[in-house]
Amino acid sequence: MIKKKNILVTGGAGFIGSHLCEKLLSNGENVICVDNLFTGSEENIKHLLSDNNFEFVEHDIINPYFADKHVDEIYNLACPASPVHYQYNAIRTIKANTIGVINMLGLAKKHKARILQASTSEVYGDPLEHPQTERYKGNVNCDGIRACYDEGKRVAETLFFDYNRQNYVEVRIVRIFNTYGPRMAKNDGRVVSNFIVQALEGKDITIYGDGKQTRSFQYVDDLVAGMIKMMNCENFNGPVNLGNPNEFTMLELAEKVIAYTGSKSRIVYQKLPQDDPCKRKPDVSLAKKKLDWEPRIDLEDGLKKTITYFRGLIGE
Ligand code: NAD
Ligand code: UDP
Asked: 158 alpha carbon to ligand 2 midpoint, in Å?
């Protein structure tokens, strides 16, 4: 009989984390979800709480965490991801990505656990190369309002590789590109949830800047499949891009959301935030080669699933 693994998911009550916990449980594993509920919620995991293989621990990873049972694997997702939330307390965001990451790497070292870091396309900053391969070193403003997150995630990657070189911790790093889907918080502030909520509530759709900036949107189920493949991949630490290479302008996204919701909302233009990247598109050939992974769900299908979720939430 194959022994169940004990898997710790930090940030497990958040948007991506809750989907990951659900998938790991359905794969037959034991899951310990650690979250401080800053942007996550118990609502996201309430359907998992009755599962004997699931445990929720309210804890902030900035403080050391001592697991009361052996841990085989750690997925480190604990960090606010939306610009609105990571800029709310920039210093705490940096602490999560430095002190918090050191705490989790220390835990991995003690338990000889493999640890995967949820890194981000933000390590490429406002990219001067397009699409972005893992070899691209990035164009990040270390003094800007996004730096607490971008530079935080960059130093987190450095810490992962240093723990690997110095302490032989088995590390895995995925660089996640814009991901969306059910269980994004209504007030998350990222573009997909903002546009859908605005469209369903008949409010103005707020495009920042001229709407010509691009992003490449990945549906959450594709990402979770890629993360689990990366955790289980032998002899490859990464970093590896996980994203959907289909690229859209924010204006195209707004028009799709209006079409799929049947909304009468108007598009309005607001000021572009500082250091907002002009374009972003992953090159996923490394993930294809090493993990036999590529995204399957296109934007139309993913948006429709996400709209159905928000309709239920808003009661529209
Ligand atoms: P989210 O805000 O929904 O999830 C983050 C979770 O971490 C929340 O549940 C929050 O309460 C928890 N958290 C934050 N700080 C914590 C701390 N100090 N201790 C314990 N828990 C803490 O965002 P998400 O989109 O699910 O993002 C999850 C991870 O994926 C983040 O690390 C993020 O940087 C990364 N990521 C996400 C995207 C994306 O497009 N969604 C893209 C790149 C990277
Ligand atoms: N954006 C927008 N309207 C919104 C929220 C975001 O036009 O209501 C834009 C934002 O300026 C950026 C893009 O959408 O150019 C993606 O923003 P998001 O915060 O989702 O992610 P990130 O900038 O971190 O990729």
From this structure: 27
Half-sphere exposure of 195 (CA within 13 A, CB side): 26
pLDDT tens-digit map of 176-215: 999 999 999 999 999 999 999 999 999 999 999 999 999 9
Does ligand 1 have an atom closer than 6 angstroms to the CB of 221?
A: no
Cite the beta strand spans of the chain per DSSP E. 6-10, 30-35, 54-58, 73-76, 114-120, 171-176, 179-180, 205-208, 214-216, 218-219, 240-242, 247-249, 267-270
Neighbouring C-beta atoms of residue 264, cutoff 10 Å: 8
Ligand number with the minimum distance to the CA of 152: 1
In order of their start, the domains of the chain are 6-179+219-244+281-296 (3.40.50.720)
- From atom 19 of ligand 2, which residue's Cα is the shortest distance away? 190
CA of 266 to the centre of ligand 1 (A): 31
> Can you say whether the dihedral through the CA atoms of 167, 168, 174, 175 is positive or negative?
positive
pTM beyond 0.85: the answer is yes
User: Looking at ligand 1, which residue's alpha carbon is closest to its atom 33?
Assistant: 81
